[in-house]
Amino acid sequence: MRNQKITVSVVGAHSCGQKVAKLAGAVGRMVAELDCVLVCGGLGGVMAEACRGAKEAGGLTIGILPGREKTDANPWVDIALPSTIGFSRNVMIAASADVVVALPGSYGTESEICYARVYGRPVINLGGWKIKGLLKAKNISQARKILARIVTQCAEGGK
Fold this sequence. Notes:
By secondary structure, the protein is an alpha/beta fold. It has one domain (7-155): Rossmann fold (3-Layer(aba) Sandwich). It has five helices and seven strands. The chain is globular and about 35 Å long. It starts with 6 loop residues before the first strand and ends with a helix.
């Protein structure tokens, strides 16, 4: 990749319990520690926890927001991009990624996973999704190994 940072879109539930929040934070830290930029929907739940984890590890975060107000972004978003297109922003979240990490979620998350696959983006499955073609990770350690391999491939010019 021509001297550009690798982007990792983290997708998951708009609201989540403590277990998924902890996982999202660990994913955010992992993204930052691998020197990637975290992209998400910029709101709460998995998005906020992933951004928080990335910021704690010194990373850069981008939130692609559904509405028109930058102030809707969670406090850990560095660059808030209002889209004004509601759930249609899911296409942008998927397309802007070099790789997607999918945590537990619902229909919006599933749409992001499917768009990522349409665009040929690898998806690391940390959410128990039963969708063909995903890279299954049983835990954050496995996800880190998979992501590190993809980051190396992207940096070397391949996908």
